Amino acid sequence: MAKDTNHNSYRLMIAGLVVGWLGVCCLSTYWLNTSRQQAQENAEAVAENIALSLENFLHMHFEVTDRILRQAAADFRQETGGAFSPSAFSKKLGQLQQLLPDNVGIRGSNEHGDVIYGVDLPEGNPLNNADRKFFKEAKNSSALVFALPLKSRVTTSWVLPVVLSLQRSDGSFGGVVYVNTAIKTIADAFESVKVGKQGSIVLFDADRRVYLRFPVPPKTHDEEVLYFGSPELKSIVAAGKSEAVFQSTSTIDGVRRTAALRQIGNYPLYVLIGLGKDEYLAEWHRDVRIHVSFLLLLLASAAIFAVVLKRSWRKREESLQKILLKEEELERSIAALSSSEQRFRTLTEGLPLMSWVADAHRNAQFFSRQATEFAGCPMASLIENNGWINYVHPDDRSRLLEAWHLVKDSGAIYQTQCRVKRHDGVWRVIEVRGLPQRSSEGEIVAWVGCNYDVTEREEALAERAAAREIAESATLAKSAFLANMSHEIRTPMNGILGLAHLMRRGSVTPLQAQQLDKIAASGKHLLSVINDILDLSKIEAGKFVLVEEDFALDDLVREISDIIGDSIRAKGLSLVVDMADMPQFLHGDSTRLRQALVNYLSNALKFTAHGTITFNGSVLEASEKDYLIRY
Fold first, then answer.
1. What does the H/E/C string look like for 149-168?
2. 97-117 per-position pLDDT tens digit
3. How far apart are CA 92 and CA 438, in angstroms?
4. Measured on CA atoms in the order 5, 7, 11, 17, is the torsion positive or negative?
5. What are phi and psi of 177, to 5 degrees?
6. Segment (H or E) for 416
7. Is the pTM of this model over 0.85?
8. Of 151, 172, 387, 455, which residue is least crowded by CB atoms under 10 Å?
9. Residue 154 and residue 611: Cα distance in Å, rounded?
10. 479-503 burial by CB neighbour count: b if 16+ within 10 A, else e?
């Protein structure tokens, strides 16, 4: 009957282990699914924020280009109403070119495609654009034309022409005007965004023609056409969506990515950010391997536990103890699994910056949407009469001016901090950075910069400094207290040791002499403990030094036995000292060795209920100067 009961208990225990392991599997599966979903959501949010930031950058760039081209077209139409002068029109294009420091140049061609308008034109026969695709497209359209990348025949660098048709005052076709945007300018902006080794950034149009892709593939032909073939992208563009988030496999490199797409303003251009799925799920894949290894280890542990439990079932108490130990191990493993979940962090949302543009005299010309939302007013209010200065704290305005005077002529990086009022009236600490934009002659014509909100960082630095000061004061107070108390105790203890020594020199019985020796040994040990307390202060001050002196090992062992012997005998135990084959004399810090060995014997006394405590030592290694001893 008892045997059947044991078998039933064993079966119930095995069933419980199986259920527990399955429960841990379910918990692990749920956590991994949740973690994967969170990683996917974070990747989508990061892709959307990067796409939004690049869309703002490209939209601002193309919008400025658009306005300048339309101004040039209006000037052409007006001048052709009278005596038209190509040189006068070229001069106006040169003036407009000063407003486009990031572009290769602005030029124009007549109705035959001859490039005769603009500055810095090559000498000799004019270049002809009649065979260019963008000339043919612009000739038949009054809208802005974004040409495919080509190699400039003037600068030999790769450019992206933005083209607009020129109409005479009578409405006839008079040629085209175009701005060559350096491909490197856009490529540098793409490269500054961290999308990982498998990530990609693509600029393409409504016909899915690729204008620029990062990483940048080599260009071999002018106006080379490369199409996006992803079915997901086809359906999104065909539906006329201006923004979307989707997953697809690239037809260019075959990489599976999570992509965020945004249309650049109202222009027929799109920017697409792709994050490699294998990259942003790398941490999750590592966790899967860890979880699988953990579950297999847990299963193996449970199997071993079951075998051990079956063999030792008759020793019920011992078996129950083993079960408790296994359950504690399982609980620690689950706790470790839960704590590992906290190591995961979400990626930051986008690029939290406020960009601005100012002329060479610090007169504001443009503020980004983030800046206007921060101030809670339209851009015109910030630009007009430099109204942005009214949002800067009065005490910090002189700092801005001083920083400006330091860099306005040298063209160094403009960097400072100031307090700026947010739209809700709260003063925030803002870090300001600006870079000069130079003309072809090297003259500073504008400043471009961005502002960062660093309020939380500055507050954290101040709190950390205050906490460090409090901790240092507390440490000094503790050290002073320990030193004072230790000195107060040491004085009477030295008196006790002195009296014991005087009594020992008098006429005493052997028993009294033995008792006085124990008092002296215990007093010396207590005095060494007091010295340890003083050593704490020395350690914290970095002044603790080990004492090196010759001492007899037998005397040290005898003192230790006298200190702990009465306590061992009072508990009904016996102490066996075995120091055979040990060196008679040693060189080192005997006080620290005594402390360590007394601690060993005290622990043995604490955890020994009956029997004998053996105190032995052996030499593991020996050289001419050193011993390696195990106690």
1. CEECCCCCCEEEEEEEEEEC
2. 888 766 668 889 999 999 999
3. 19
4. positive
5. -125, 140
6. strand 414-421
7. no
8. 172
9. 100
10. beebeeebeeebeeeeeebeebeeb
